[in-house]
Amino acid sequence: MGIVSLPSSGMEPENPTRSQVLTLEEVRNELGDCKRCKLHQTRRTIVFGEGNEKATLMFIGEGPGYDEDVQGRPFVGRAGQLLTKIIQSINLQREEVYIANIIKCRPPQNRNPEPDEIQSCNPFLRKQIQVIQPKIICALGTFSAQTLLKTETKITALRGKFYDLEGIKVIPTYHPAFLLRNPDKKREVWEDMKKIAEWINNA
Ligand code: SF4
What we know:
Layout: E1 3-5, H1 24-31, E2 50-51, E3 57-61, H2 66-71, H3 78-88, E4 98-101, H4 115-132, E5 136-140, H5 141-149, H6 155-158, E6 162-165, E7 168-173, H7 176-181, H8 186-202
Helix pairs in contact: 1-4
Bound molecules: iron/sulfur cluster.
Iron/sulfur cluster is lined by residues 31, 34-37, 39-40, 46, 103-105, 117, 120-121.
């Protein structure tokens, strides 16, 4: 299976010395009651991310929606329920993976995150990746894939391939919310998930 190398995305975890490696709790504490971008004005809660601090597989979506903003947890609405089923389809449970988003606060009316918002939030996602050190990241949807891989290539072309991000494999697939609107695309996500399972089993 081919690995596609991409130019530096700015998302790569640095190679921290041992003393620089934080815990997720320390990263969360550092984030605090974050007001680093304008999304703090309209959010209810910061959706930091959740799951296994030592996960092999990490999912990164776009940003919190209404349900996530209310509950303070990622992927808990209808799309989240579908993500849970997608995770279970490769014999994993939600608790075994780590789930986060490109941005941690809900944009008004679920609009796309803006570049300054991503830039403000990005250091904390990078720190989460540094702590977790996943072997593989599944980028959910256009926004996550394009941001992580620093490309404008469409998700239809990106999905289902492995990319290398400083030693971490990244495989983009469709966002569960997109699947709810386009159930005929579930087969492609299933194929992508099979590739992830195969890669994990052979790692
Ligand atoms: S989106 Fe990120 S940077 Fe912006 S306020 Fe929320 S936590 Fe802070």
